[in-house]
Target: Terpene synthase metal-binding domain-containing protein
Amino acid sequence: MGSTPVGTEFTFRYVGGAPRKYISTYQEDECHDKILLKLAKLHFNALQKQHKQELSHLSKWWKDVDIVSKCPYARDRLVEGYFWALALYYEPYYSRGRKFFTMGVVYISVLDDTYDAYGTADELELITESINRFDTSLFEQMPPYAREICQMVFGVYSVMEEDLLKDGNGAHLPCVKEAMKLIVRSYHNEYLWLKKNLIPTMDEYTQQSFSSSAITTLLIFSLAAMGDIVTKAALDWILSAPKFVIAAQGIGRFLDDIVSHEFEQQRQHIPSAVPPP
Model:
């Protein structure tokens, strides 16, 4: 935390952009090392170019998926998701981690909007069952939008599968798949609360809503993409919800409740940790 001002501890910062300020300051110093300054500029420009290329490739993938036109109720959060990934790790060798994380953010956001405000009980049951079983046989029973959502999820998994197998990290795939199942089960359980008009206790709410914060799913995606330094045992441990994961889930959930509670009061929604005015 150090000298971080109170009230800004949870602000996402793009740490990779900080050298730009330091380069300008160092350049004005009469005693600066010209070679060091030149290397710093080259490194910053190369890193910025890589980030632009990554976002360009992700944008092309997202445009090809075209889920925004097929599900117009859903938020388009690609750039937001990539910026979030940069806040986690900007270094060039974590390119795949940023790719997996951003893909996770955009597809989870579509699922969240679908379960929160669009799908019917029968449709959500089919989506949940299809993803939970990783089974396309239910597609014939789905309306077009639900089928597109499941195809999007399976498509994201296929991209991750191809990348991980290419690097010899196929052992991570069961954990990636389980993380995908975890988030849809959580969203569906919350929908059932709403449908049955249940008001959970705070303990019940935290137990359920922490898992729907998507922290675990995104954490698995990020770590699985980091290569040999992360083992399957480590991913299994994350899925077992150790204390630090529960703490991260809680931070994510309560921050989300604080930010979104006014909007969510305008439509049917499960109770949140923030009481209505």
Summary: The chain has twelve helices and no strands.
